[in-house]
Design goal:
The protein has about 210 residues and is α+β, with helices and mostly antiparallel strands. The protein has one domain (about 5-205). It has five helices and six strands, in the order αααββαββαββ. Strand 4 (about 165), helix 5 (about 170-175) and strand 5 form a beta-alpha-beta unit. It starts with 5 loop residues before the first helix and ends with a strand.
Amino acid sequence: MRYETASAVAARRGDSSHHEEGEMTRHERIAKRTALAAALAVLACAPRPAFAASARELTLDGKAALQSLYATQPTAKILGSKAKAILVFPSILKAGFMFGGQIGEGVRFQGGKVTGYYSSVAASYGFQAGIQEFGYALFFMNRSAINQLDATRGFELGVGPSIVIVDEGVGKSLTTNTLTSDVYAFIFDQRGLMAGIGIQGSKITRIDK
């Protein structure tokens, strides 16, 4: 019969815990890759995939989405007048069953001019079913936040600059004197069967058009 000291048992259990933690991390990575692959497969079959627009179409769609947002959300217009740059994703398609993903393309405006095009990609896992389309806009309020967008190869929402997702409650409290965050986000045109739209963790990457 083999005997172990309490310290040896604790050490063994600790090793097992670390192993399980490593396995969970590996499974999470596999889940994210599966989610993105599933989303891309669904999007590839769509009549007008969210990532197939030309530069001209994306610019027009971005301008139209921004103007519609200003017309319905006065707070967005206030932010637009103060923002150093605005990144608009007029159409993000989210799809999933158990594993999910979302993808779309956007356009960046500075001083009313187009200064770049970007993709937005995110993965999720857990129970979910359906296909949903929505859009979102990011208002960069200072040069530091823009520098991080420019300097990183894959800007991830929720990592780096502080970001506030504006809902009805936040919108009512925002004024030109209370703008303290680096980035403000609006999610708009929500429709479809899937609940709980989230953009946190979305990876934003500059693309050529």
